[in-house]
User: What shape does this take?
Amino acid sequence: MIVLEFKLKGKAEQYRVIDEMIRTAQFVRNKTLRYWIDNQGVKLIDLYKQCAIMAKEFEWAGKLNSMARQASAERAIFAIQRFFANCKAKTPGKKGYPKFKKHTRSVEYKTSGWLLSADKRCLTFKDGFAAGKFKLVGSRDLHFYAPDEIKRIRVVRRADGYYAQLCINVERKEELIPTGKAMGIDVGLNHFSTDSDGETVANPRHLRKSEKALKRLQKRVSRKKKGSGNRKKAIDKLGRKHLKVSRQRKDFAIKTALCAVKSSDFVAYEDLQVRNMVKNHKLAKSISDAGWSQFAQWLEYFGNVYGKTVIAVPPQYTSQDCSSCGNTVLKTLSTRTHICDCGATLDRDYNAARNILVKGLKQAGINLNLNTVGHTEINAWGQTDLYSLMAASTSKSTD
Assistant: This one.
């Protein structure tokens, strides 16, 4: 399943109609959730039936395509299922009880209510709202995909316009020449990542670099009169700046993850609990700005696309244990150099990356104790149980 995104180019009146569609989808979702709250124990099919009842009860709700109403109800259903799953798994902390939405920014269609033009460059919405015909602006070519392969279309409102996300039922697979290398990756704040070869990737700090501009735009918003047109314009500018920062962070995560997966056949990374780490108010902004979770998600995705083995390992003691002898050397966060009695002296993150690689290989069924540093050569295209250690690259240790 792949998702292709295009910007919708239309008239101002059409955009206002899309806003009405989004508000209607939010209403259906909240109304479905309310029915579940008032009638505990109802089945999922009953929530779908409520969509048809709402269409008869509210004329403007009936304008929304029937499958779009069902897709809105599914959002409430997914929230309910996630809540019960967290309760069953006894997840620590809040279980995520479903809440009513106030600021929904998207509406989702399934296989009806829309139509692609013959040249597949325009999208027309055919339900009761009659939003009309929009031009699709993007770099992807839809001629490679049949119309019946498009399973869902989501219309998203962002600070810089409206977008259509097309969910296409296609399996994406790419083939690469095996490199015969394994890599352990440690993420941090000083450097975004350090691998088991000692190579580092600088932390871009997108939010930190844009903080002055964001503060200036935020001041302009606060100085405008509430409800005025100038305030709305200032809010739009602030939103576009935040959107640019988030896109920069996503682009960096994609490129860094793709480079790591292409350069190695085996990638091990830390399975960090970022949700708990951001509770530290002194580091929360820097951790969120780094985007470690997003990086891990793209590592998993590209590993699946390119047929590489990507393993998440627990982060416990990866920085404290010595990668040369295995002894534990306790150190604080401010201690950036690992010094062991065995004579090993190397960067803290570099030491952690080596330990992560060893843990990842053990999870894959390969017992390895690194006594040299660098990418570990392996002969393992595609099958984890066939990994066998061949050699190690040139040592960079100072011990």
